[in-house]
């Protein structure tokens, strides 16, 4: 069966206590009969044959995700090479980290000059900016407030790493033209918001506190729609966990799988899970280790170019407008280091709490990702988190609202704004 773009694949029922899994898609495929009770049966994909019934391990959705991925030989070869590279970079980074941690944390704040945003203005970022002093020791925050102020549908768009509100600039007009109100903040450390120089100041609590302050300033306390990309989704999910009535719907775009210290020898009863997960996560681990080694010196232009081979030099300059000096790169350095790969990481409990919240939540969700890709610069797609789709189809109430979008990279709402906008509009206006 050939499925047309953005269509839904229907699923077969569960046969007793056995769950039939069969799926072929970008970067992963799987087919087996499992003696695991069904938790949710959710699937959608584009231009691919097959079907998937999501099984669920009550204790660990990471196991479900890994079991829904069949690694190809190229996946394995690339993954093993990357893991060796990861070990080498970690060994180099460790003494630098020790020395860096000896220095006291600095709370110095910098503000990007308005002239530095000229490349973004040239590329079409012409929205009127708004600013709020959050108080409580937090610096100034910038945000966009576009569309109908009286709209019943208020969408909160939270960007990811290493982007800012400019990453939504192609999507926002498509949403406001439908009568929606759109709030798009620059997280502290990004865009036109103030930036702590020291990456060690940043954590999920700081970002949640800043977002809470912004929403309180706007008088927005319930029935919002969260549209989150990458780290923006995880910050938003943390807000939802802390304020269960804040959001009425979730839109999840190309993000990580709420990592909660999954590299743990004692975590999995199946000894094949950890090595398979490590291979699946190898690109991110190399990225994180590279940031750990280079810190503020990490080449953000190289990162962004790897996320979509078609970005022009002008686009790269627009994306990087807020990060022209090392002192402006504390936030971009912090986010990769905030991801808990090992169980000793300080963000582990927050991520586990978010996972538990999502598994219990009845908030309707929609998941939209670009296709997965094996390597950067060679093919279009997301080589870092493009394989996370089965995770979110399992842990969120997305039902049949799980979509893959062709011809885009990690920043799917910028690369394919019309498709993403149509999916969001239909989802927001639906009765679910």
Question: What kind of oligomer do you see?
Answer: single chain
- Domain count: 1
Q: Which descriptor suits the 3D outline?
A: globular
Number of helices: 15
Distance between the termini: 28 Å
CATH superfamily: Alpha/Beta hydrolase fold, catalytic domain
CATH classification class = Alpha Beta
CATH topology: Rossmann fold
Q: At CATH's second level, what is the architecture?
A: 3-Layer(aba) Sandwich
Radius of gyration: 21 Å
Q: Outline the low-pLDDT stretches.
A: 1-58
The main pleated sheet reads as: 8 strands, mixed
Q: Could you tell me the mean pLDDT?
A: 87
The succession of helices and strands, N to C, reads: EEEHHEHEEEHEEHEHEHHHHHHEHEHH
Helix content: 25-40%
Structural class: alpha/beta
With strands numbered from the N-terminus, the spatial order across the biggest sheet is 5-6-8-7-10-11-12-13
Please provide the count of β strands: 13
Describe this structure in words.
The chain is an alpha/beta fold. The chain has a single domain, classed as Alpha/Beta hydrolase fold, catalytic domain (Rossmann fold), CATH 3.40.50. It has 15 helices and 13 strands. Strands 5-6-8-7-10-11-12-13 form an 8-stranded mixed β-sheet, sandwiched between helices. Strands 2-1-3 form a 3-stranded antiparallel β-sheet, with no helix packed on it.
């Amino acid at each position: 069966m050939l499925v047309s773009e953005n269509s839904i694949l229907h699923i077969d029922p569960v046969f007793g206590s056995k769950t039939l899994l069969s799926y072929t898609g970008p970067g992963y495929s799987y087919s087996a009969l499992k003696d695991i009770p069904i938790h949710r049966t959710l699937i959608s994909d584009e231009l691919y044959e097959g079907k998937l019934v999501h099984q669920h391990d009550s204790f660990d959705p990471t196991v479900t995700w890994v079991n829904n991925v069949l690694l190809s030989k190229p996946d394995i070869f690339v993954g093993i090479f990357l893991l060796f590279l990861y070990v080498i970079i970690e060994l180099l980074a460790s003494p630098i980290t020790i020395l860096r941690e000896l220095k006291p944390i600095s709370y110095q704040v910098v503000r990007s000059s308005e002239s530095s945003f000229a490349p973004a203005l040239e590329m079409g970022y012409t929205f009127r900016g708004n600013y709020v002093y959050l108080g409580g020791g937090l610096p100034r925050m910038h945000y966009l407030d576009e569309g109908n102020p009286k709209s019943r549908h208020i969408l909160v768009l939270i960007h990811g790493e290493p982007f800012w509100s400019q990453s939504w600039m192609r999507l926002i007009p498509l949403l406001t033209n439908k009568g929606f109100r759109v709030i798009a903040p620059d997280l502290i450390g990004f865009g036109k918001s103030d930036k702590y120089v020291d990456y060690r100041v940043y954590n999920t609590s700081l970002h949640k506190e800043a977002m809470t302050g912004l929403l309180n300033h706007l008088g927005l306390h319930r029935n919002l729609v969260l549209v989150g990309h990458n780290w923006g989704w995880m910050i938003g999910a943390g807000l939802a966990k802390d304020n269960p009535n804040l959001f009425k719907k979730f839109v999840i775009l190309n993000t990580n799988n709420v990592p909660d210290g999954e590299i743990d020898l004692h975590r999995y009863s199946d000894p094949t899970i950890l090595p398979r997960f490590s291979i699946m996560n190898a690109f991110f681990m190399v990225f994180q280790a590279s940031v750990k080694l280079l810190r503020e010196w990490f080449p953000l232009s190289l990162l962004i170019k790897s996320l979509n081979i078609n970005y022009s030099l002008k686009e790269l300059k627009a994306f990087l407008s807020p990060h022209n000096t090392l002192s402006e790169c504390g936030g971009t350095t912090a986010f990769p280091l905030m991801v808990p790969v090992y169980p000793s990481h300080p963000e582990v409990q927050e991520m586990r709490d978010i996972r538990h919240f999502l598994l219990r939540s009845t908030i309707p969700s929609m998941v939209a990702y670009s296709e997965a890709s094996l390597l950067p610069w060679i093919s279009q797609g997301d080589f870092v988190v493009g394989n996370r789709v089965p995770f979110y189809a399992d842990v969120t109430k997305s039902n049949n609202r799980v979509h893959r979008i062709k011809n885009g990279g990690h920043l799917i709402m910028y690369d394919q704004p019309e498709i993403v906008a149509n999916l969001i509009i239909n989802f927001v206006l639906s009765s679910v």
